[in-house]
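pinned: reference chain
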Amino acid sequence: MNTQEFLNVLQENRHKSLLFEYQPGNLVKANYHITEVKNITVDSVDCGTGTDFWKETVVQLWESPSEIGKTEFMSASKALGILNKVDRIKPMVKDAELKLEYGNDGFHTAQLYVSGYSASDEALKFTLSVHRTDCKAKETCGVPETTEENNLKTTLTSCAPGSGCC
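pinned: its structure tokens
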């Protein structure tokens, strides 16, 4: 989901409680705050010497320890207000991929992708997920396209020292 799509969904559901499911059945607690919005530029070189460039928007969620036990979630309207204020100060790239950065005592901090959302009469829930790392230079490194189960074995043998891959 890109930044503009996220903003549009918030606008369409502005009077609903805003929930984030970071793992199946696990929600970011109601005491969360939006603590930072990052405009990220990635300028990269992969292991096959291929270059890439893209932008991302990262919205950081943090659970306030002083509000443990809070039961009322932030509204989509409040989140939209925060993001619009940020956009006036540091404009967000609207077609950039959106990620939510989150972690707690039982879940390592990670940048999570929006894999879907659902809306009921009362709440808007975004489902978050991780993407696995991958070799972008499979052809250059001699890593054949295989099933996910065999990818690890193939990568370990194909990206060995002296194979042409990092």
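why pinned: Residues 135-166 form one domain. The mean pLDDT is 91.
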